[in-house]
Design brief:
By secondary structure, the protein is of the alpha/beta class. Helices cover 44% and strands 16% of the residues. The protein has helices spanning 2-6, 10-18, 89-102, 115-126, 154-170, 172-177, 181-190, 192-206, 213-226, 229-241, 270-273, 292-295, 297-311, and strands at residues 22-25, 28-33, 41-46, 66-71, 108-112, 131-136, 249-257, 277-284. The longest helix has 17 residues, at 154-170.
């Protein structure tokens, strides 16, 4: 809080962000970076919670193989949330597909983590003719394999035991955000200290090394000035009460495994995720946690480039 109140320079971030190409389309804010040659592979990147498009800013200069589209999820930052229920993975993925079509891309790649992994997965399921491949750095909890315990391997059981331990210590936020997000939202939207404590605790617990205060304060400021912390938390409510029914994803899939959270969530075994995804590339990284694009941008950018280069 002291850094945010006395040292943080939002004007410096404004100058940095104003150097990017920002657009809006049907209420969706997005950053758009095209390859000068005009031959970039189209790629849409989707962040999660409690994050924003800022997670990808450091990666953008490293993605010179792609025409990059980085939207803000509905209800986050500069994308207002529609005043209705049902804004779930499928709703957002359909908006993303229409956005890419409006930009002139009939074939494109997609990548994301957290809610972004859910949106990216459903995008591949619903539009396999358009999505050439997907790259994920987390497994979205709502889309995990449904497997009888008798069919699990010992390695899978060990991973799920660690994951359940994480749920017991970390998932309290999800219970309230998927049932009564407005209740906690009023407090967070009224108190900078409350917002910083609630969001900052997630970044500390779920990261390998917590990102610098300057980045975290930029994220906090984006939520604060747009008053979108409450609307962002409605993702949990909408996806709980308007769930999607996932099936096997046949689209070529890459996983970048960043399993070094401060509070361990476990390293998912490849066979476990192969129950759901057609995995073509599997890379386990020595550093980085839940927020991999912000924590290890060079590693994520390199893995993305290698995967889509091989596909083409």
């Amino acid at each position: 809080m002291s850094y945010w109140a006395h040292k943080f320079d939002w004007r410096a971030w404004e100058r940095r962000l104003n150097a990017l190409n920002h657009f809006t389309w049907e209420g969706i804010h997005f950053v758009y970076q095209r390859v000068a040659s005009g031959r970039g592979v189209p790629l849409i990147l989707t962040h999660g919670w409690p994050s924003s498009f800022l997670d990808y800013v450091d990666m953008l200069p490293m993605l010179d193989y792609f025409d990059v589209v980085v939207p803000s999820l509905p209800g986050y930052g500069f994308s207002p949330r529609p005043p209705k229920v049902g804004i779930n993975y499928r709703y957002v993925s359909e908006r993303w597909h229409r956005l890419m079509s409006e930009l002139g891309y009939s074939r494109y790649g997609a990548s994301g983590y957290d809610f972004g992994a859910g949106v990216t997965t459903i995008l591949a399921l619903d539009h396999p003719e358009s999505v050439i491949g997907i790259h994920l750095t987390t497994l979205e909890s709502d889309l995990t394999p449904v497997v009888d315990d008798t069919e699990l391997s010992d390695v899978e059981r060990s991973y799920l035991a660690v994951s359940r331990g994480w749920d017991a210590t970390e998932r309290g936020y999800s219970a309230i955000q998927s049932t009564k997000p407005q209740t906690v939202g009023y407090g967070l939207n009224d108190s900078p200290a409350g917002l910083a404590g609630y969001v900052g605790e997630k970044w500390r617990s779920w990261s390998d090394v917590t990102p610098p205060d300057d980045f975290l304060c930029a994220t906090l400021t984006l939520y604060w000035v747009t008053q979108t912390i409450t609307s962002s938390m409605r993702d949990y409510w909408d996806n709980r009460w308007h769930p999607v029914d996932p099936t096997y994803v046949s689209t070529p899939t890459a996983f970048g495994v960043f399993a070094h959270q401060t509070v361990p969530e476990g390293e998912p075994p490849r066979p476990y995720l192969e129950r759901v995804y057609n995995i073509h590339r599997w890379t386990v990284f020595p550093r980085g946690g839940h927020f991999a694009p912000a924590e290890e941008p060079a590693a994520v950018a390199g893995d993305l480039t290698a995967f889509f280069h091989d596909l083409s």
